[in-house]
């Protein structure tokens, strides 16, 4: 009886340690070359997909990390898949031109990755640390999610819903 209890406790401990380890590893985000542990924040995953003419497929995925009503970190991965290089060129150029506006703005990390049939935009915005005044100067006040210097989760969700984005809580 003691041997089975020890085995049970060992398996339970292994399960708990593995589960905790995986969760904390997936709850970290890199912002401005710094690792941010988002373990204590709430987390939502949001996504939507679409298509355009000529077989272009767009997949949009967002991770929202938030505390209370404030959006702390937004991680966005937008992937465009196309068969024509000229279509990929257009998206790559468009993303790069947009992100030129944010150059030098700390805690707005954007990169564009070109693959054989894809262009991926990967953006992390750390709203806890970003200079929201500078951000608003770039983006403008209209349809923005910032209120009194803080990014608001509900404003982001309302705006995203207008475009058909679906979200679910991550536990």
What does it look like?
This protein has 171 residues and is of the alpha+beta class. The chain contains four helices and ten strands, in the order αβββββαββαββαβ. The strands form three sheets. A six-stranded antiparallel β-sheet has the order 6-7-5-4-3-10, with helices on one face. Strands 1-2 form a two-stranded antiparallel ribbon. A hairpin with a 3-residue loop joins β6 and β7. It is globular. Residues 1-25 have low confidence and may be disordered.
Beta content: 35-45%
Write out the strand line-up for the largest beta sheet, numbering strands in chain order: 6-7-5-4-3-10
Sheet/helix structural class? alpha+beta
Helix percent band: 25-40%
Gyration radius from CA atoms, angstroms: 20 Å
Low-confidence stretches: 1-25
Shape: globular
Q: Could you tell me the mean pLDDT?
A: 86
Count, helices:
4
Listing every helix as H and every strand as E from the N terminus to the C terminus, the arrangement reads HEEEEEHEEHEEHE
- What quaternary form is this? single chain
């Amino acid at each position: 009886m003691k041997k089975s209890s020890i085995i049970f406790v060992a398996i339970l401990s292994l399960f708990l340690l593995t589960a905790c380890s995986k969760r904390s590893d997936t709850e970290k985000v890199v912002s401005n070359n710094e690792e941010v542990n988002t373990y204590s924040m709430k987390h939502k995953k949001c996504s939507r997909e679409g298509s355009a003419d000529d077989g272009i497929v767009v997949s949009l995925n967002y991770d929202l990390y938030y505390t209370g009503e404030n959006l702390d970190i937004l991680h966005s991965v937008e992937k465009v898949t196309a068969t024509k290089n000229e279509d990929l060129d257009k998206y790559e150029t468009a993303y790069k031109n947009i992100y030129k506006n944010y150059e030098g703005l700390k805690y707005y990390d954007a990169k564009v990755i070109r693959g054989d049939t894809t262009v991926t935009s990967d953006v992390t915005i750390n709203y806890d640390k970003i200079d929201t005044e500078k951000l608003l100067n770039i983006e403008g006040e209209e349809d923005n999610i910032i209120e009194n210097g803080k990014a608001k989760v509900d404003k982001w969700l309302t705006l995203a819903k207008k475009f058909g984005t679906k979200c679910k809580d991550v536990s």
